[in-house]
From TrEMBL:
<dbReference type="InterPro" id="IPR050618">
    <property type="entry name" value="Ubq-SigPath_Reg"/>
</dbReference>
<dbReference type="Pfam" id="PF10607">
    <property type="entry name" value="CTLH"/>
</dbReference>
<feature type="compositionally biased region" description="Low complexity">
    <location>
        <begin position="621"/>
        <end position="643"/>
    </location>
</feature>
<feature type="region of interest" description="Disordered">
    <location>
        <begin position="612"/>
        <end position="643"/>
    </location>
</feature>
<dbReference type="InterPro" id="IPR006595">
    <property type="entry name" value="CTLH_C"/>
</dbReference>
<protein>
    <recommendedName>
        <fullName>CTLH domain-containing protein</fullName>
    </recommendedName>
</protein>
<feature type="domain" description="CTLH">
    <location>
        <begin position="54"/>
        <end position="110"/>
    </location>
</feature>
<dbReference type="InterPro" id="IPR024964">
    <property type="entry name" value="CTLH/CRA"/>
</dbReference>
<feature type="domain" description="CTLH">
    <location>
        <begin position="441"/>
        <end position="498"/>
    </location>
</feature>
Length: 694
């Protein structure tokens, strides 16, 4: 599962949308424009969308109901969604719960208020809420004479606090759909992928390497489903294909899927979103996973980076001393902020997440200034190992000098706190050089990735070899592909002699020990035969190679791969395997951007050929998928997948869709099992049903 290729750029886009939609980040320029004093009053985060505002309202209502304050919840509903209370079924349940909560307080005044609530609210609603409501009303009257601590009483279930959570979940389901306040796409995608992953592992009897995380992230509890409007009780029949797709996608009974379709007024995708959002995620665990991923990918800076950046601006003399001496010490005496202290000492994932102080990142402009005048002889006695801080900081300055590096524009993590200072008064641990050496390691991995993404493969290879001469010995596949990029760029520039030198010096020796690389080398050399100007070497699909290099360099630097990456790789893999078993396509894959996560363009030679074919209609030999040993799918794997799809299509074509659906509906079977049964009875659905029921 860990070798499953994933389009990390697509995941980056989902994550950025998630943190922006949930207001988890703050733009750095927002902090810059705020008051310079760290003691100034913080400004509340701006609400970026009506959906975010609606989700906040739902959270407030949910929290109020879960804490037993039903009246406060109803006041919020009246102010923001009064039409919800027009449904007397919902109003009756809220009033009944309000009666119980008043009794629970135990004072004489509250008991009087509870009886008054019965007279003025609960009883009138019970008359026309739903057929069973009046019986429920009479039953709840028993709470007046039975104690809340009596577990044997006939109304023990009415006293149970879980009723609060059921009511809170029901209101969340109703309000979410009514206000169109769905969670960000990434949140729904993660729920869906994890639920399929769990189901696949259970049905196949295999263990999951990420089971601990997935069980803590996706909870077993679900919010109660919203009941469809009374006008939909006699709804026209829905397409059985839609019903079965929804039922199997979110693990519903057929009747549950029908009810969900009724509530969504026949809209399959809205019903699907309603059901996904009923699944409960542990938001605190999710936020920590996302934060770790964002820091690893360079999307956000940690709190510690924000502090170090502010401290560096006020202590420029320390920076000058740093450039002269690799072992200088500084002591910044500021007070420690509790958020950073708590996060640094207590990871929410019990050590699974990297310490925040180890993941803070440097701002490019500051690094360029600090090391711009550094003498080459300043650290003559320093070795070139990854662990040597002096060498890594010098390497970081060299790499950024290649890129004409712009000032860092990363966002700052804010979290879900209502208010936060832009420049909190914090301190951070001393380092022998005045900066955290782990910061530079993260920046090295990110900078190398950026080099390759910009097509500067030769520069990346040279810097890596300088820092760790053994790196490419242990990663020959990555070395080959970097040199392949260098070769293709030289051919694109018309420097065929230079390209041949790269092939002779590097590509040939590397391919000699690997038959697959040798085949790739042959295809690469064919580019020399293309007309000048048609190679497009400056527009190669390099993102996957860059990401592979970041992971490998990070591993050598001792940087752990984010847990979220492991979850996504495992769940995307099982998603693919699950729908192979189901012998059908996932109807919701595009909606949740899962297709984008699987879109991998790693074929460097093929990319050049396809562009040349458009320009000159030239026909070349078979397209080759170039891969790195760590992330890409082999040509054989691709052929096997194509064969599997062909076989699946041919098997499905043998039987009519109506026969497949009939067996699925009557026997409550997955699609794959229905197809296998039909295969035993020559596609005769009636024979299958008669045999099993007879």
């Amino acid at each position: 599962m860990d070798s499953t290729p994933v389009n990390w750029e697509a995941l980056d886009a989902l994550i950025i949308d998630f943190v922006s939609s949930e207001n988890l980040v703050v733009e750095e320029d927002t902090c810059a424009n705020s008051s310079q004093s760290p003691l100034s009053s913080p400004s509340s985060p701006s609400i970026s969308s009506s959906s975010y505002h609606a989700r906040l309202i739902i959270r407030r209502i949910r929290n109020s109901i879960e804490s037993g304050d039903i009246e406060a919840a109803m006041d919020i509903i009246r102010s923001n969604a009064p039409f919800v209370l027009d449904d007397h079924r919902i109003l009756f349940r809220l009033q009944k719960q309000k009666f119980i909560e008043l009794l629970r307080k135990g004072t004489h005044e509250d008991r009087v208020a509870a009886i008054n609530c019965l007279r003025t609210s609960v009883a009138p609603c019970a008359l026309d809420a739903y057929p069973e409501a009046y019986e429920e009303f009479k039953h709840v009257l028993l709470a007046l004479i039975y104690d809340k601590n009596d577990q044997t009483s006939p109304v023990a279930n009415e006293w149970a606090e879980k009723r609060r959570y059921e009511m809170a979940g029901l209101m969340s389901s109703v309000l979410r759909a009514s206000l169109q306040a769905y969670d960000p796409v990434f949140s729904m995608t993660l729920r869906y992928l994890i639920s399929i992953h769990k189901g696949f592992c259970f049905h196949q009897g295999i263990s999951s390497a990420v089971s601990d995380l997935t069980h803590r992230l996706l909870l077993e509890e679900r919010d109660p489903p919203a009941t469809p409007p009374e006008s939909m009780y006699e709804a026209p029949p829905f397409d059985e294909v839609d019903i079965q797709a929804l039922a199997h996608a979110v693990e519903l009974t057929r009747q549950g899927a029908v009810d969900s379709m009724k509530f969504a007024k026949g809209d399959l995708f809205q019903a699907f979103q309603n059901e996904l959002c009923r699944m409960q995620l542990d938001v605190s665990v999710l936020d920590e996973l996302v934060k770790e991923y964002c820091i690893y990918r360079g999307i956000v800076d940690s709190e510690m980076q924000m502090i170090t950046g502010a401290a560096k601006r006020s202590q420029s003399e320390v920076g000058h001393r740093l450039s002269r001496d690799c072992s200088s010490e500084i002591d910044l005496n500021t007070s420690q902020h509790s958020d950073v202290e708590n996060y640094s000492s207590n990871s929410m994932l019990n050590g699974a997440l990297v310490n925040d102080t180890e993941m803070s990142s440097k701002q490019g402009g500051d690094v360029d200034t600090r090391y711009g005048s550094e003498r080459t002889s300043g650290c003559e006695d320093c070795s070139t190992s990854w662990s040597n801080h002096c060498e890594t900081t010098r390497a970081l300055a060299r790499i950024r000098s290649h890129m004409n590096f712009e000032r860092n524009k990363r966002k700052r993590w804010r979290g879900r706190a209502d208010e936060m200072d832009c420049l909190p008064d914090l301190s951070f641990p001393k380092s022998e050089s005045g900066i955290n050496p782990i910061d530079d390691k993260y920046e090295i991995a990110l900078a190398v990735k950026e080099l390759v993404s910009r097509g500067m493969a030769a520069e990346a290879a040279n810097e890596i070899s300088t820092m760790d001469p053994d790196f490419f010995t242990q990663n020959p596949g990555l070395h080959f592909h970097l040199k392949q990029v260098e070769f293709l760029k030289l051919v694109s520039a018309g420097d065929h002699n230079g390209a041949l030198k790269v092939a002779c010096s590097h590509l040939g020796p590397l391919a000699a020990s690997d038959q697959y690389l040798l085949k790739t080398l042959k295809e690469t050399l064919l580019v020399l035969l293309q007309p000048d100007g048609n190679t497009h070497g400056n527009d190669l699909p390099l993102n996957d190679l860059a990401n592979s290099l970041q992971v490998s360099v990070g591993n050598r630097l001792g940087i752990k791969e984010p847990q979220l990456m492991k979850i996504i790789k495992a769940t995307v893999h099982t998603h693919t395997e699950w729908f192979k078993l189901q012998m059908c396509k996932d109807r919701f894959s595009k909606l949740l951007k899962i297709d984008s996560l699987k879109e991998m363009n790693t074929d460097l030679v093929g990319a050049i050929k396809s562009r040349s074919n458009k320009d000159s209609n030239a026909n070349f030999s078979s397209q080759v998928t170039t891969t790195s040993s760590s992330t890409m799918t082999s040509e054989d794997g691709g052929s096997s997948s194509l064969m599997m799809m062909t076989q699946t299509s041919s098997r499905e074509a043998l039987w009519e869709e109506s026969a497949i659906l009939k067996v699925m509906e009557f026997l409550a079977l997955p699609r794959s099992d229905a197809i296998q049964l039909l295969s035993q009875y020559n596609g005769n659905a009636e024979a299958v049903i008669q045999q099993l029921f007879g």
